[in-house]
Amino acid sequence: MVILGAPMDEMVTHRPGARFGPREIRAATDLGAEGWHMDLGVDPFADLNVVDHGDAAVRPGDARFNHRSIREAVGRVVDSGAVPIVLGGDHSISFPNVAAVAEGVASGSLACIHFDAHTDTATENYEVEWSHGTPFRHLVDEGILAGPRLVQIGLRGWWPNPPEWEWARGAGVRWHRMEKVIEEGIDRVVDSALAEVSDADHLFLSVDIDVLDPAFAPGTGTPEPGGMSTRELLRAVRKIVSRRGLVGMDLVEVSPPYDHSGITSMAAHRTVLEAISALALHRSGREARPENPTG
Amino acid sequence: MVILGAPMDEMVTHRPGARFGPREIRAATDLGAEGWHMDLGVDPFADLNVVDHGDAAVRPGDARFNHRSIREAVGRVVDSGAVPIVLGGDHSISFPNVAAVAEGVASGSLACIHFDAHTDTATENYEVEWSHGTPFRHLVDEGILAGPRLVQIGLRGWWPNPPEWEWARGAGVRWHRMEKVIEEGIDRVVDSALAEVSDADHLFLSVDIDVLDPAFAPGTGTPEPGGMSTRELLRAVRKIVSRRGLVGMDLVEVSPPYDHSGITSMAAHRTVLEAISALALHRSGREARPENPTG
Amino acid sequence: MVILGAPMDEMVTHRPGARFGPREIRAATDLGAEGWHMDLGVDPFADLNVVDHGDAAVRPGDARFNHRSIREAVGRVVDSGAVPIVLGGDHSISFPNVAAVAEGVASGSLACIHFDAHTDTATENYEVEWSHGTPFRHLVDEGILAGPRLVQIGLRGWWPNPPEWEWARGAGVRWHRMEKVIEEGIDRVVDSALAEVSDADHLFLSVDIDVLDPAFAPGTGTPEPGGMSTRELLRAVRKIVSRRGLVGMDLVEVSPPYDHSGITSMAAHRTVLEAISALALHRSGREARPENPTG
Amino acid sequence: MVILGAPMDEMVTHRPGARFGPREIRAATDLGAEGWHMDLGVDPFADLNVVDHGDAAVRPGDARFNHRSIREAVGRVVDSGAVPIVLGGDHSISFPNVAAVAEGVASGSLACIHFDAHTDTATENYEVEWSHGTPFRHLVDEGILAGPRLVQIGLRGWWPNPPEWEWARGAGVRWHRMEKVIEEGIDRVVDSALAEVSDADHLFLSVDIDVLDPAFAPGTGTPEPGGMSTRELLRAVRKIVSRRGLVGMDLVEVSPPYDHSGITSMAAHRTVLEAISALALHRSGREARPENPTG
Amino acid sequence: MVILGAPMDEMVTHRPGARFGPREIRAATDLGAEGWHMDLGVDPFADLNVVDHGDAAVRPGDARFNHRSIREAVGRVVDSGAVPIVLGGDHSISFPNVAAVAEGVASGSLACIHFDAHTDTATENYEVEWSHGTPFRHLVDEGILAGPRLVQIGLRGWWPNPPEWEWARGAGVRWHRMEKVIEEGIDRVVDSALAEVSDADHLFLSVDIDVLDPAFAPGTGTPEPGGMSTRELLRAVRKIVSRRGLVGMDLVEVSPPYDHSGITSMAAHRTVLEAISALALHRSGREARPENPTG
Amino acid sequence: MVILGAPMDEMVTHRPGARFGPREIRAATDLGAEGWHMDLGVDPFADLNVVDHGDAAVRPGDARFNHRSIREAVGRVVDSGAVPIVLGGDHSISFPNVAAVAEGVASGSLACIHFDAHTDTATENYEVEWSHGTPFRHLVDEGILAGPRLVQIGLRGWWPNPPEWEWARGAGVRWHRMEKVIEEGIDRVVDSALAEVSDADHLFLSVDIDVLDPAFAPGTGTPEPGGMSTRELLRAVRKIVSRRGLVGMDLVEVSPPYDHSGITSMAAHRTVLEAISALALHRSGREARPENPTG
After folding, report:
1. What pLDDT, in 10s, does the model give residues F237-259?
2. Does residue A14 sit at the E interface (CB-CB below 8 Å)?
3. Most CB contacts within 10 A, which of A237, D62, E8, E42?
């Protein structure tokens, strides 16, 4: 697996700062070079080869260049046979990221499970086409991701507007509003999502940290109260990746200037580490072996 | 509906700062002039005429004047036929606010659902009669609110003392301690509360942001650990107002100097927006139409 | 009961600052000299004699001296017949604290319920034997606490490593990972823990504030996302102490420099107050009398 | 000398929080029970008997009561022959403080040197007569302080208005705007101030921490950019008190919710300690003996 | 005079957030609708007609559009005969701002005094031509501002590189490094600057808040230690505008997410208010009448 | 030159956190791999070979090990012929650092200029011999540094006590209290210091960031109000190193948990960069060539 930073935030519509996300997520740990996941019974660093490739080259103020650079960097990772995990940066990076992964895994169908408070399916935000509110629209509209293979979890609030909802239904996108998570529980929602992507060959995971409630993730650009707890997110990621593996991932919208004591960066760091651990389990082909008193 | 600020905090007993609540609550949004509630299927700004009347005139250090000024300002709103939503300020403003609303809706009976960590039913705090710990005592004792039509949700901690509890039972007040919310779930508690106010003609909603756990609302004056999550509060407000409508509301005790990254102000802002949206649905006479994949 | 501060943090492995925990926990309240617990129906300050003995003498930079000093100070409290409640300070203080309590209650068997994200059962951290990651190992290995009488709740994350887990199983330690709390609910986990310590004569309670999720307790040294909510912790402590009483307690790892608006200190303060209140109930020999509308 | 807290902030016009000033100022030190002033060559705690009498009794929300309580508490200190040093609290406390000191030293004339960004000479603020913007007007108008014996240093900004300036000239008040401090240097301004009060028998010192630039004192209620540095203030206080001694003092307007890392509280703490040290020197009757390499 | 916000920060190279500068600068005051400058003896709001035109329309992520929009908005102000004061936003807005002012005052020559830690004279930053590090290069290179009529004050640190310095000498630009301010004092530096622009008909003032030391202005994007104090800046602005008047101004690079307790916003607010007050004096044609004890 | 981190803070007596100093100082820049010092006319990265060797190996909680490790790491740097610049960490690291440098430059005499609020000349703090308040005592007492070749600048406050002052005079140590800096100006004080070390062959520079006033360096462990401004420190370091070169340096006591917006880390970063730049100039053998308008 390859960790790759995408330190850009030119495409945010509200609070900037996600350009410093990669740096702070990397620092948000007191673990050394090993770690044993007590619920899964794996050491991800022993079982997988995890490499940090640093950041994609970016130019502050030039989103177009940055998107191209990220796409190329992810492409190189995919070409090498590794699984790219991109640390945002704003959510606009999902377009180049998913596009590069889709290209790389051309031999099979790609599905995406997307955790977010927002659908990010506008055609533009404030007339900006490649904004952080649009990547999933363009991915579907450009045929990179089939509508029915996009599943969104955690949606809430007062955005988007009816035209975007109509488009999503028309395109066959599936989603689970936060209200469903509250009513059914995260476990059942994850089961539904897994069923919905069961026919795809490959799974991409996109996590916007604002799927968490602002209490758990204050350090983000467009927080929306009423969201998930960190333990729900970790549990969901664990199950999804344990079951389906992973061909690519991004973790976006961590904005350190709005964080405090690193709690948002830590939640992001652990979400990535959970995915890596679950992938180690998935690849091992065995079941989780939680550490229990009776062995 | 009319938004009215009540920027006073002279009556707090612990951490001040709520005077800046109205300013920060208003700023705690990245929405423009429209917004589509994905769980209800309404655009509150399209369906309702929501106007911001600015702040009631206040004099720092003169609570008596401020209470009079707030009562008059709310009175003018009520007289105009609009529903006042008052942004506190400390909780002492509920006395003038409820009193003015009660006067305005004299033709029918008024009930109040009150979310709070505290009962606010003392006769005085530190010998101050109109403190933020007393409004609901005076509202009942002065006959403005019938005891049995006051329902409190979220109470917890080590206050008040036995005499206040005795008074409340004697007056017929109803309440649901936080322990009940934990044991029964917010949905059942809200159902009980709705049943308890079912015989009243009009509903007033008073939300002290400290009903939330300090993790969700650090920016408040007398936080009490062990409280509700924002999603429970939003869900409760949604159901209550969708069912019963609203003749008045206040959202109090947001103290920006103790907030960080605006998370308390945002929780407050969304609580108000949830009430407005639910009122739009209530007035429409139709059921919620959540945005679902299958239409 | 005697409150005793242990203002040392020399033994932390990551973020320091817990030396200021005692000061901030003491200040994290707006209560005066009385308080009525609405769920239990007790005034802990009326029913128990609670005294604050100040801090144990410490020397910054000399952990060995500090441990000795804490052990002596706790010993004096125990000798006087009082129940010591030690405010940390880093978790290394549990060794001298539990050791002194065990000595004092020599006539009966001692069990410990331990809330934490981490097991703290290493033989050393970075080759430091008396680190905050080791006290429970040494307590069991030195025979102060029988392995089967140590019950840990809330464990999660990527630490410790397999050797520590093997040791724990070998020693008969019992534990409930956070995953269990999520799956079974805190009530059932507490019931299991109570059953596991039912044969012991005395109960010690050790609470590392990092058992809470960083959203609820950002102000700590080694936060681990995905933890308990404050209301789960308060509820657990209430039940445990109401049922079993208490011969000693510590509340550790509150690091004020990483806190904001005192929310971590407040959660710690209320956890201690909850224990004191529950002990008052336990000693009274009667059932909880929650304040309900119908009396 | 007696330290007395005045934890009230009901009379602020802008940012509250000064009620927590006394608590944080007391904590803003790493000194123990001794301390050697290297520029003066005195140990204030050895030479003077410094006692902390705790806080005057206050009721949140009842400024009238608080002023009475502070006046009585200061009166008791003065009657005992001690020098009161009052830690605010908002600046309105200077009225009861100076009034009580003036009563106590009735046998001689009293002068006051007052460091502040603001004159605090309005008749009322927002129609509130005893506001923090009025104490020096009332002290002069009620004849407690003779106009020519009030000397103000550090004034700047856009307040008060011409009527207050006219009044001050009419009353014979003297002042040194911040512009003068910049142009002449603090040493010459202090010399002028000392000359202006040279005919008085007793000296009172009132320091509003907002005389400092917000960089040095962010934690205050009505900060005004362009102010003094801490070293200028410490130097000024040292010289004034060394020369003239002290019969009373207050240090006001420290607002901890707006402070960070305690820098404002520390500046306040050292200003008080500087005054105490300088008083020790003054009483010793000898010159300063700075610690120099050559002895 | 017209206040105009330019809430964009797409062109910053390091820490973003200046998009929220206009909002916070406007809020950074406790003054009402009047104010009397005690050093100048003017009430700027009485003598001048100061109007707030709100913000120029901006699109997050579209700097090109924003620059056009700002230029048009400033152009409209200039056409109306008013003096525009633009609140940034990042420093890239100086290009459209100065360009629009230059167009408006075509009949006379325009000079600019520019306070900044940086020269902002690169041709591009990270290959972005219209970055916040380039406006003064383009203004001179495009002939909008004559090189010799650009005077920079406060420069320090390790940027730009020799080619930019060579260009500046070649273009006849004048500047005063921070070292000069330290060695000669701000008064003499301002006198030199005034002499250097004495032959121009009109004066534009551009203040990058990072000319201040980070202690005085932490809330900015590219802070450079070792800068001016706020009182030096206020004094400089006062003298410059009193002597020469003003045809346009901008105050840029206030980044609220990095500010604390509003100290940077307040320094910015007072700098603008100082300029307005000095302009009022300049237009009155009379000398400053400071408020002194002797009238 | 070699940059070496010393991430330990076991030896602080008050606020910890300096263990994170090296990480944050390294990140406190927006410069890339080049930089042109406009006052000196040098590019330190072009003229010198500056390498970052990472951190010395440390064990949290084991100061003895850490001191040994730092001494060895510095020794290796010195042996290689490079100049070590150690980023603390607490000030106790100056003992191993200076000791290793002294060993390395055995062929000539070593002097040390030491910027600090405190003398750090106690024999022990709280009975801890190798505390951060003792390194310079031990360096002199053990004969590593001759007393007359230690020059301290910026001392202030209420510590140490007379015995330490007596010792210093007896040992021939020289110092310049902050009062002298205020009265004479930093330039003259630096000239005196240079004269006092003029007979030594080699110069070591030790900068405790708390020599700065807390306004400029809030992020430190034992801040002392009334200190230097950053521009005074930068100017002093520039002159000292330009004149005398450097055989070793440390920059200590940056405590990031108490910093905000990185202003303390930035001040520290620039102090180091200033030293490196001045050393580049010193080695070039030419005079400073400041960038001036006239070339």
Report:
1. 999 999 999 999 999 999 999 99
2. yes
3. E8
Beta carbons of B125 and B13 less than 8 angstroms apart: yes
* C-beta atoms of B226 and C270 within 8 A: yes
Which chain B residues touch A213 with a CB distance below 8 Å?
216, 229-231
Chain A contact present for B52, CB below 8 A: no
Which residues form the domain of C232?
Answer: 2-284
List all residues 6 or more positions away from C63 whose beta carbon is below 8 Å from its beta carbon: C8, C10, C11, C92, C130, F61
F-chain CB neighbours of C12 within 8 Å are 60-61
Q: Does E55 touch chain A (CB under 8 A)?
A: no
Tell me how far apart the alpha carbons of residues E270 and E235 are, in angstroms, rounded to a whole number. 11
Contacts of C16 in chain F (CB under 8 A): 9, 16-17, 19
**Tens digit of pLDDT for each residue in C9-26?**
999 999 999 999 999 999
CA angle, corner C136, sides to C133 and C142, nearest 5? 125
Q: How many domains does chain A have?
A: 1
Q: Which residues contact D244 (CB under 8 A, 6 or more apart)?
A: D194, D197, D203, D282
CATH of the domain at D14: 3.40.800.10
- Of all residues in chain E, the one with the smallest CA distance to F212 is E215
Evaluate whether residue A146 is within a structural domain: yes
Alpha carbons E253 and E217: distance in angstroms, whole number: 10
Max CA-CA distance within chain F? 60
Does residue D86 sit at the F interface (CB-CB below 8 Å)? no
Residue pLDDT, tens place only, B188-241: 999 999 999 999 999 999 999 999 999 999 999 999 999 999 999 999 999 999
Instruction: Write out the H or E segment, with its range, that includes residue C16.
Output: none
Interchain contact, E36 vs D160, CB within 8 Å: yes
Residue F161 lies in a domain: yes
Subunits close to B (at least 3 CB pairs below 8 A): A, C, D
Chains E+C touching (3+ CB pairs under 8 Å):
no
Tokens 């997410």 belong to residue:
E257
Answer whether D155 touches E (CB < 8 Å): yes
Tokens 């004191």 locate to: C276
Rounded CA separation B21/B67 (Å): 16
Task: Give me the amino acid identity at A59.
Answer: R
Q: Which chain E residue lies closest to D161 (C-alpha atoms)?
A: E36
Query: DSSP letters along chain E, please?
Result: -EEEEE---TT-SS---GGGHHHHHHHS----S---BTTTTB-HHHHS--EEEEEPP--TT-HHHHHHHHHHHHHHHHHTTPPEEEEESSGGGHHHHHHHHHHHTTTS-EEEEEE-SS----S-BTTBTTSTT-HHHHHHHTTSS-GGGEEEEEE-SS-S-HHHHHHHHHHT-EEEEHHHHHHH-HHHHHHHHHHHTTT-SEEEEEEEGGGB-TTT--SBSS--SS-B-HHHHHHHHHHHHHHH--SEEEEE-B-GGG-STTHHHHHHHHHHHHHHHHHHHHHHTS------TT-
Q: Which of B10, B17, B19 sits opposite D61 (nearest CB)?
A: B10
Q: Pick B35's closest partner by Cβ from A159, A173, A260.
A: A159
Q: What is the pLDDT of residues D101-150, one digit of tens each?
A: 999 987 889 999 999 999 999 999 999 999 999 999 999 999 999 999 99
Could you tell me if residue B208 is inside a domain?
yes
Match 């009397």 to its residue by tokens: E36
Chains that touch E (3 or more CB pairs under 8 A): A, D, F
| C 206-235 → A contacts, CB under 8 A | 213-215, 218-219, 222-227, 229
Q: Is residue E18 part of a domain?
A: yes
Selecting from D36, D39, D43 the residue whose C-beta is nearest the C-beta of F179 gives: D39
Secondary structure (3-state) at A92: helix
